[in-house]
Design a protein that fits this description.
alpha+beta; 3 domains; three-stranded antiparallel β-sheet; 8 strands; 42% helix; 23% strand; elongated
């Protein structure tokens, strides 16, 4: 007669063998420092070979696929838990963009940023006339929040999570359709969940522990920043500039940033020229070049209109 009492024991043994096989498939252990250091070299090589990182201000940030690869080698996978729309259906907003100067990397850099947001048409008209405004847009607003879990593949247990938000009001998301905002928020949540659990693994591999998908705005500002103006730039309406420069001018330090910023604030060419003619720096060639450049931007026909009656900026 067959012994039935041995069957449960055989079943338990089989389950243990399956679990052991699953665990053996992932040879790296988050609890073992040596295991992490052994894997860090493989991770670095994979990310560099597949171009899964970007450089922002001389630091390396890894994209979400690099984080997925790292997680998989430790037996981890990401699962979206929920995605929620935070904006109201049919939200229409007036978004006003303003030109600003930010001090970055030891120099002033010009940026255009969202400054005013309103859903009231009357307020939008007021915002549009404020100083420094570049342009105003009327957009349909999309904003999503996503939560993601990190699952241990062998046990099925939730071992970590992360939450992210994405909106088309962000500098790098302007003009995004709703599906693109929804997709991006999931990417961010996945990367954030991995970062919360295995950020130190990326650090061990020589990368930043912040995912590249969270650094998009910083990357855009770094890539689009205008180059600093130098005294060697072309100077309109000044002939033989190098010959006309006095020794004092040649040895003069860079024009103060406050003066450059003051020039940029003007919105009327006549007022700019009147102000410039009263400044001590009016003989400084860089000053003259910046004033004339700003003047031509405000009123391209100014030179033609004043050719017979005025000298734009006298020494």
């Amino acid at each position: 007669m067959e012994n039935k009492t041995n069957k449960p024991m055989a079943k338990k043994t089989a389950n243990k063998e399956v679990t052991a096989q699953k665990n053996e498939a992932f040879i790296y252990d988050l609890k073992n420092p040596k295991s992490i250091m052994d894997f860090s070299g493989i991770l670095k090589q994979f990310i560099e070979k597949q171009s899964l990182s970007c450089t922002i201000q001389k630091k390396m940030y890894v994209y979400v696929d690099g984080w997925k690869f790292a997680g998989l080698n430790f037996g981890l996978t990401a699962v979206i838990k929920s995605i929620t729309k935070l904006s109201e259906h049919g939200d229409l907003l007036y978004v006003t963009h303003v030109k600003k100067k930010r001090w970055r990397n030891n120099q002033w850099k010009e940026t255009v940023e969202v400054e005013y947001i309103t859903d009231i048409p009357e307020q939008a008209q007021v915002d549009e006339k404020l100083p420094g405004v570049e342009f105003q847009r009327r957009i349909r607003h999309y904003k999503y929040q996503c939560e993601c879990d990190i699952i241990n593949i062998a046990t099925g247990q939730v071992v970590g999570n992360g939450t992210a938000i994405c909106s088309n009001l962000e500098m790098t998301k302007q003009g995004f359709d709703e599906y693109a905002v929804s997709s991006m928020v999931q990417t961010r949540a996945i990367a954030k969940a991995y970062r919360n659990l295995i950020g130190y693994v990326m650090t061990a591999a020589g990368f930043e522990s912040t995912p590249a998908d969270e650094m998009e705005e910083a990357k855009a500002q770094s890539n689009n920043a205008p180059k600093e103006e130098h005294n060697t730039a072309p100077i309109p309406e000044v002939k033989n500039a190098s010959q006309e420069q006095t020794p004092e001018q040649k040895n003069a330090s860079e024009l103060p940033e406050e003066i450059k910023m003051e020039i940029e604030r003007f919105t009327d060419a006549e007022q700019l020229i009147e102000w410039a003619s009263k400044q001590d720096e009016k003989s400084h060639l860089t000053f003259r070049a910046l004033v004339q450049k700003k003047r031509d931007a405000l009123d391209p026909s100014y030179k033609t209109k004043t050719n017979k009656t005025k000298t734009p900026l006298k020494k």
